[in-house]
Amino acid sequence: MHLNPAPAPTTSVTSSLKLPSPAALPPSSSMTTKYKGPWIVQLGGDTAQRGIHTKRRPPQTALGHYKPLLPVVVTCANEEDAKALNRLNKTVFNIVSTEDNHSLIYKCANSPVTDLRIVGSPVYAFRVAVETGVWIGPNIF
Length: 141
Prior knowledge:
By secondary structure, the chain is of the alpha+beta class. The protein has helices at 29-34, 79-93, 101-109, and strands at residues 39-43, 51-54, 63-65, 72-76, 123-126, 128-131, 133-136. The protein contains three helices and seven strands; from the N terminus they run αββββααβββ. A five-stranded mixed sheet has the order 2-1-4-7-5, with helices on one face. The N and C termini lie far apart (52 Å). 25% of the residues are buried.
């Protein structure tokens, strides 16, 4: 004899509160001890998607033969570099016009925020790829 359990009662709750996806939230201190990376940072572009993402990059961002200057998606092997890069969103990308590529490059290159510990780490940049962007660190793929 095969018995099927009765389905559990369901309730429907409608809310206008829109929570950010877990991938868009910055890593919490409890996550940093368990999560091994990569950390994906979106610099510039849509302000709702800027910041640190874990496990996957922002959806539909910088794909294929990507020509616009922004956003730039950077995948980091360690959390410290991701946090340092993310500070550029506040110190550079919120201040400089997205059309002013010379000022963006100058500000990024001369910002104390860009003092990253990537010396000796491989850096890969792809302008034409399924996923374009910059990858920093060993074993990032």
